[in-house]
Structure formats: structure tokens, C-alpha cells
Write a structure and sequence with these properties.
mainly alpha; elongated
């Protein structure tokens, strides 16, 4: 959901690709340490960012018929 909202908001697939790569890097790094704290932090950040992007899309949609 975050990646699709990034695409809609920025009109650039490169940002979504970079974000996806960063997310994969964090997930792989957290698996090596044995701690799931990184996973919870990333999921929390993604949820908050998704809500932000969704609100931005809704706000933009209301301004344009």
C-alpha cells in the first residue's frame, strides 16, 4: 500500500523502487541480528507513513473534481 501511495503522490516509480530496496535492506539486516525490534519499528513507520500518504491523496482529491 505504501509503495502504491508513493507512486500516486510523487508520480515517480524510482522513489517507490528506492523505498522498497531500503525496506528489504532493513528486513534482511534485522534477521541477522536476531531481534524483531527492527521489524516492529519498520512496520510502525510504514503504517504511519501510509496514513499520512492516504490523507494527502484524500486532501488532493477533494481539491480536484
Amino acid at each position: 500500500m505504501v509503495l502504491s501511495l508513493l507512486r500516486v503522490n510523487n508520480q515517480s516509480i524510482l522513489i517507490a523502487i528506492a523505498f522498497h530496496g531500503f525496506n528489504n535492506f532493513i528486513i534482511i539486516s534485522s534477521q541477522n541480528t536476531g531481534s524483531s525490534l527492527y521489524t516492529y519499528v519498520i512496520v510502525s513507520i510504514l503504517i504511519i507513513y501510509t496514513i499520512y500518504l492516504w490523507a494527502r491523496v484524500v486532501k488532493f482529491s477533494k481539491g480536484h473534481p
